[in-house]
């Protein structure tokens, strides 16, 4: 855990430098975690937001990255942002009251490729709905690792008049513009009355004993070259695996002289050959 440093400057801007098929982002996230137990959020299809807009309209999908898809929506900064927050991944100074919360995720560009060393600057209210405007309680910035991943340890923020529960964040890829936005919690009564609330910014939440765990992946407006899920330029090795085939968990195929067992139901697409997607196939 990084230690608070009140004198450190936030480096903004950077110097130049059938079942539904899983999204490209889901597959790539799993590929980033080869050799590591996959979080439950990586196993499955893109999650729907867990709440509805006013009037009961179905929510939109949380944004996924793919060629041509929209980046994460922007939102207002609000009146409580402060520059020069401490560099740290935990905002739990002095064992503050409140329900513990861990937020994890990735930062991607427009072609679903992870962005390393992306800046994330978080700030939020305390358990009583108050912001610290004199110091840096519940404020801190960090950078994504080489796989584009981040982790934040904090508490569930309190409510204050006129707003639903939320966490503010600025996200910036090296040498690119800053995205200012907010993250929201599903099933909050005030989500339907908050004029700023956007269901596309809902985190996926679960309870883990006394700790709440949230996940969200940011998609920045950063052009990238096509990722590894684009169609291969050479014919694949022989075997029983086929593009376009529907597979169920437990199905077995051969590919390139090896046998594989399907881990989750999906429809095979170009670039999703068993050796390339450990989220979908395990070598027998």
Describe the structure.
The chain has 284 residues and is mainly beta. Strands 1, 4, 7, 8 and 9 form a five-stranded mixed sheet that branches. A four-stranded antiparallel sheet has the order 3-2-5-6, with no helix packed on it. Strand 7 and strand 8 form a beta hairpin. The longest helix has 9 residues. It is elongated. It starts with 23 loop residues before the first helix and ends with a strand. The N terminus is likely disordered.
Write the layout of secondary structure elements.
Elements: H1 24-32, E1 100-108, E2 119-123, E3 139-143, E4 149-155, E5 166-172, E6 178-184, E7 204-208, E8 211-215, E9 218-219, E10 246-247, E11 252-255, E12 258-262, E13 266-267, E14 281-283
Parallel strand pairs: 1-8, 1-9
Antiparallel strand pairs: 1-4, 2-3, 2-5, 5-6, 7-8, 10-13, 11-12, 12-14
> Which outline best applies?
elongated
Total number of strands? 14
Helical content class: under 10%
**On the 0-100 scale, what is the average pLDDT?**
78
Number of helices: 1
Spans of 5+ residues with little confidence (pLDDT < 50)? 1-22, 34-63, 228-234
For the terminal residues, how far apart are their CA atoms?
A: 38 Å
Oligomerization state: single chain
Class per helix and strand makeup:
mainly beta
Query: How much of the sequence is in beta strands?
Result: 15-25%
H/E element order: HEEEEEEEEEEEEEE
CA gyration radius, whole angstroms:
20 Å
Largest sheet: 5 strands, mixed
């Amino acid at each position: 855990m990084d230690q608070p440093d009140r004198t450190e400057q936030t480096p903004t801007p950077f110097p130049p430098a059938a079942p539904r098929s899983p999204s490209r982002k889901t597959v790539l996230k799993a590929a980033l975690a080869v050799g590591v137990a996959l979080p439950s959020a990586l196993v499955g299809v893109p999650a729907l937001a867990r709440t509805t807009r006013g009037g009961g309209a179905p929510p939109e999908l949380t944004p996924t990255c793919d060629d041509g898809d929209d980046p994460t929506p922007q939102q207002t900064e609000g009146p409580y942002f402060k520059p020069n927050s401490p560099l740290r991944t935990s905002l739990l100074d002095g064992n503050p009251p409140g329900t513990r919360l861990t937020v994890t995720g990735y930062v991607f560009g427009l072609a679903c490729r992870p962005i390393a060393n992306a800046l994330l600057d978080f700030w939020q209210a305390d358990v009583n709905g108050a912001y610290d405007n004199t110091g840096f309680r519940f404020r801190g910035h960090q950078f994504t690792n080489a796989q584009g991943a981040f982790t934040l340890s904090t508490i569930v923020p309190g409510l204050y008049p006129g707003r639903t529960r939320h966490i503010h964040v600025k996200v910036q890829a090296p040498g690119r513009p800053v995205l200012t936005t907010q993250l929201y919690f599903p099933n909050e009564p005030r989500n339907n009355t908050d004029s700023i609330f956007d269901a596309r910014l809902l985190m996926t939440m679960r309870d883990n004993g006394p700790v709440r765990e949230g996940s969200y992946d940011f998609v920045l407006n950063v052009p990238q070259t096509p990722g590894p899920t684009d169609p291969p330029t050479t014919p694949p090795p022989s075997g029983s695996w086929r593009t376009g085939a529907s597979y169920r968990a437990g199905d077995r195929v051969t590919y390139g002289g090896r046998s594989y067992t399907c881990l989750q139901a999906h429809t095979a697409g170009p670039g999703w050959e068993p050796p390339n997607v450990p989220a979908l196939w395990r070598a027998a």
